[in-house]
Amino acid sequence: MSIQFEPPESRSDQEFKAMAIGMVAGAVPGIIIGLLLSIPWGNPAMWVSIAGAVGIILGLVISTLVQRARRKRGRDREDA
Fold first, then answer.
1. CA distance 31 to 45
2. For 18, phi and psi rounded to 5 degrees?
3. What is the separation of C-alpha 36 from the centre of its chain, rounded to a whole number of angstroms?
4. Above 90 in pLDDT, residue 74?
5. Which of 16, 4, 10 has its CA nearest to residue 63?
6. DSSP string computed for 22-62
7. Cβ atoms 58, 25 nearer than 8 A
8. Which of the four pLDDT bands, split at 50, 70 and 90, describes residue 3?
9. CA 72 to CA 66: how far, in whole Å?
10. Residue 2: pLDDT band with limits 50, 70, 90
11. In whole angstroms, what is the distance from residue 65 CA to residue 75 CA?
């Protein structure tokens, strides 16, 4: 029996994983907010796509910033 999944070890793998998690973490609330906005104003497809896209972009940006901060903090610890 072989293991199919190997945990990400390289820096680019970890960065990609963080960005993917950030995009999903932003998309889920964006979709929910879009559905809630469609209740009073109608047209759910439009609101879900707008709010979901904004959520994905925010999640991607925030996850990238967090990943850079973690990497910088790791370098600071190595220098000390």
1. 10
2. -65, -40
3. 21
4. no
5. 16
6. HHHHHHHHHHHHHHHHHHHH--HHHHHHHHHHHHHHHHHHH
7. no
8. low
9. 10
10. low
11. 15
Cβ 35 vs Cβ 44: under 8 Å? yes
pLDDT at 19 over 70: yes
Q: What is the 3-state secondary structure (H, E, C) of 3-27?
A: CCCCCCCCHHHHHHHHHHHHHHHHH
Provide the residue count of the chain.
80
**Token representation of residue 22:** 């950030």
Neighbouring residues of 41: CB distance < 8 A, sequence distance ≥ 6: 47
